[in-house]
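By convention, each integer encodes one residue's backbone shape. The lines below illustrate.
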Amino acid sequence: MSHKFKYSDFGEFLVQTDTIKQIIFPDNFGIMQTDSIVVNENIVIHRNNFSIQKDILLEYDFILNGISINISLDGGFEYKSHLSDFQILQQTDNTILTIGNKESGTVFHNKNNSLKNIIIFVKLDFLKQIFDDNNEMEKLISHIENKKNSKILKSRQSDILTKLCAYDIYNSSSKTNLDIMYIQSKVLEILSYELKDIFSNTQEKNATIKFCKYDIEALHLAKKILTQDLKNTPSLTELSRQIKLNEFKLKVGFKRLFGTSPYIFLLDYKLHEAKKLLKTSDLNVTEISSEMGYTQV
């Protein structure tokens, strides 16, 4: 017979050191260890390592307000929503994308079962920043804003590239801002792989947009501005004003001309420069992080 625990009761079983939370259930039911990484104000990652000795039911209530990407590296679980017909059966090498505002449900773990996975939570504000020129993503954002319950976007065997990124995230250090920058780049890779169906629809639509000589010159200027002062890089809105090109054309044109978005280009450029400074300068990690525009380590 399985035993039921509510998430609100986890505190009495909690042992925490730094970012790692360890739930030790009584009567040898099992141990759940979670390492939480705050990549930025809109992205949080949970790296989980569970060892379950007896059948156990865990009840959860949480606010999602965005997208979650659950990637199982080893083991699995069953989940049943209390709010809808939402149901998950996760297995090894399986990726599940869900979207919504709130969720409440029960997770069932079988006895003598282990689970290693990562869960990436991406908030609504980040989705708007990266994907607001995408019709399909606009529909998903509207679903969240209307405070609707969670739904599954897709559940399938993990794409090999997604799985490689997930292993990198699971095994990476997260002690310095350079580590966090690396993890963030892997999160963006996973988003691009898992949302590529949505991207393909947008690319077909945007292929008809024309760019004149002035637009092309403005886009090259935007790229130059982004790399001029890494400590004080402009927001997308500020960049749009500086080059006198609207934000929609800036994002679509930048992607067409340089093969990536301004945000991801800047992140990749900072990573490249940080690695170069580590090899060629006498600066320590704290000083390099400062040069890249990060003030704390």
The first strand starts at residue 3 and ends at 6. The chain has two domains: 3-175, 209-291. The radius of gyration is 21 Å.
